[in-house]
């Protein structure tokens, strides 16, 4: 099953923040390697959209439409609706996802 992949504005912002952080604290090469891994993971999702697992944080809340895959040190959180895969979040796997989600909700208020 091949799907169309849509990277939402929130995930685009995540990529910008990740690029700024990795470039500043490590190197541009580190960012390029990370970005390459992310693109490769997204290409896999294009062909195998249900290959990811339900994030533990969502599973505890009985929310099952979101999935994740791990790409290097990052999580890609996405949702599949019919033949479109929406990427919502790209975040360092070591970050607290619950805190990130709360911050995003508060930003919208």
Description:
By secondary structure, the protein is an alpha+beta fold. It is built from 4 helices and 4 strands; from the N terminus they run E-H-H-H-E-E-E-H. The protein has helices spanning 9-25, 28-47, 56-59, 97-107, and strands at residues 4-7, 66-71, 74-81, 84-92. A hairpin with a 2-residue loop joins strand 2 and strand 3 (74-81). The longest helix is centred in the middle third of the chain and has 20 residues, at 28-47. The radius of gyration is 14 Å and the shape is globular. The N and C termini lie far apart (38 Å).
Topology of this structure?
Layout: E1 4-7, H1 9-25, H2 28-47, H3 56-59, E2 66-71, E3 74-81, E4 84-92, H4 97-107
Parallel strand pairs: 1-4
Antiparallel strand pairs: 2-3, 3-4
- Please report the total strand number as a whole number: 4
Shape: globular
Q: Give me the secondary-structure category.
A: alpha+beta
- Give the count of helical stretches: 4
Largest sheet: 4 strands, mixed
The helix/strand order is EHHHEEEH
Spatially, the strands of the biggest sheet line up as: 1-4-3-2
Oligomer: single chain
Strand portion, in percent? 15-25%
């Amino acid at each position: 099953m091949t799907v169309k992949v849509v990277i939402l504005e929130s995930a685009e912002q995540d990529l910008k923040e990740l690029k700024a952080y990795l470039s500043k604290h490590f190197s541009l090469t580190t960012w390029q390697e990370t970005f390459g891994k992310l693109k490769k993971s997204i290409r896999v999702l294009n062909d195998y959209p249900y290959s990811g697992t339900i994030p533990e944080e969502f599973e505890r809340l009985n929310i099952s439409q979101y999935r994740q895959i791990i790409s290097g040190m990052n999580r890609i959180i996405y949702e599949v609706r019919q033949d479109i895969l929406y990427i919502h979040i790209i975040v360092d796997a070591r970050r607290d996802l619950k805190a990130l989600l709360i911050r995003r909700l508060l930003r919208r208020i």
